[in-house]
Automatic annotation (TrEMBL):
Domain of life: Bacteria
Gene Ontology cellular-component terms listed: plasma membrane
Gene Ontology MF, one: ABC-type transporter activity
Keyword annotations of the record: Membrane, Transmembrane, Transmembrane helix
Residue intervals passing through the bilayer: 12-33, 53-78, 99-126, 132-155, 162-183, 203-223
Coiled coil: none
Pfam families reported in the protein's UniProt record: ABC2_membrane_2
Name of the protein in question: Uncharacterized protein
Length: 228
């Protein structure tokens, strides 16, 4: 599992897409910190909000484009192994659960490094740290990673998940926000399945983690029954 996770982690740092996304995160962090004082000068924020405003830009970026970023890099994390037949080699050396968890942990570690670096940039520029925003951001990303792993496990063709990564990456945050605020009783219950609803209150983000765990379990059940 650790070898697979390490390989997945290092692989994510290679390629032009990874470099572009990392640069976007760095630029967002830099300008969020740079213009935070300008926003605070508007005197429309409470003392509690002033501690979070420096990180608002980064959180908003990952809120609206995080799913697109995650799926853009990892849409084929599972089905690529099956498509290229490399899964046959892997299952002779380790269990399918270890493969799945290795992939998942490698992707999580990649985003943990990226988010930590982004938060450190803001911290060094502003001198303030917001641990709550950090954990909210990571819980959101863990959900997005779990969803990506699930789709990559269920859908066998990498070409289709690549197309789906664009469509779902753009549509998911819009639909999720609509569900969070809609009064339509027929669909409003779906908001409890999305992470956006649980980011409204400070510590409700912890509920996102069990949702991600459920998707990982479903991925394992599907992957366990799939032929190599």
């Amino acid at each position: 599992m650790f070898a697979i996770g390490k390989r997945e982690f290092l692989k994510l740092f290679k390629g032009i897409k990874s470099i572009i996304i990392i640069l976007i995160l760095v630029a967002t962090s830099y300008y969020s910190a740079k213009f935070s004082n300008l926003l605070l000068s508007l005197e429309e924020f409470s003392a509690e909000d002033s501690d979070k405003i420096e990180y608002a830009g980064l959180l908003a970026l990952l809120l609206f484009l995080g799913q697109l970023f995650v799926m853009g890099l990892s849409h084929d994390a599972m089905n690529r192994e099956t498509h290229d037949r490399t899964i046959r080699f892997l299952v002779t050396r380790t269990s399918r659960l270890s493969i799945l968890l290795g992939k998942f942990s490698g992707i999580v570690l990649f985003w943990l490094v990226c988010v930590t670096a982004s938060f450190l940039i803001i911290f060094f520029m502003t001198g303030t740290m917001d641990p709550l925003s950090f954990f909210q951001t990571m819980s959101l990303l863990i959900y997005q990673i779990a969803l990506t792993i699930l789709l990559s496990t269920v859908i066998p063709k990498p070409a289709f998940t690549m197309f789906l990564s664009v469509v779902l990456g753009l549509a998911f945050p819009i639909v999720s926000l609509w569900l969070a605020f809609t009064s339509n009783v027929y669909v409003s219950w779906l908001k409890y399945l999305t992470p956006f609803y649980y980011l409204e209150e400070d510590y409700m983000f912890l509920i996102i983690l069990p949702l991600a765990a459920v998707m990982v379990v479903i991925s394992h059940l599907v992957f366990k029954r799939r032929e190599c």
